[in-house]
Structures are given as C-alpha cells and as structure tokens.
User: What shape does this take?
Amino acid sequence: MHKRISAVLLTACALTLAACNEQATVSIDKGYGPSPTLPEPKTSWIPTLNIATARRWPVGEKPTAADGFAVSALASGLDHPRTLLVLPNGDVLVAETNAPPKPDDGKGIRAWV
Assistant: This one.
C-alpha cells in the first residue's frame, strides 16, 4: 500500500512539474503594437495561476513617469482602494473594499494558495 501511495504522489509531482514547463513562442517585439502576434490559447488540466503580490511604494518614492508626464500621490492611508470616479467638478471618489475574515479563509486550497 505504501509503494502505491508513493507512486501516485510521484506521478502527481511529475505531472505538476511538466505543466510548469511553458515557454514563450512569440518574441517580445512582435507581441505588442497595433497588430500584435498572439499565441494560440492553450488548455490544460492544471490551469496557470499567477497571483501578483501587492506591495506599497516605499515612503518618498514613486513610479517613473513617461516623458512629459508627472506622478504625484492623490491620496494616502487607503487600505484597499478598488475603484476611482472623477466627478465633473474634479473631486475624486475612491471606493475601498475589505471584507471581514471568513471562518473558512484559513482552510483548504484557498489558504494553501
């Protein structure tokens, strides 16, 4: 029984690693512009899952703007800004979201991911 479980785990690990071997097929310069060359969509048993890590800008730093543009902080101290709405008079409304923790947030696949 122990050998059978080991074989199943080894097979699952091999399949997982095989799914991670995706390579780019289009060069970077052909992938943008008015008529980009897009690769064909791929399907798989294990979907690609890339979760970006949210990080704040360090105090006193800001992103580099394109030539002719400037960057300045519009607001600070926001926990979870999600949507901006600029009113006709120039006021900016910011919607923040932060749901309370759910009892099952620390369990299952969601917690592992």
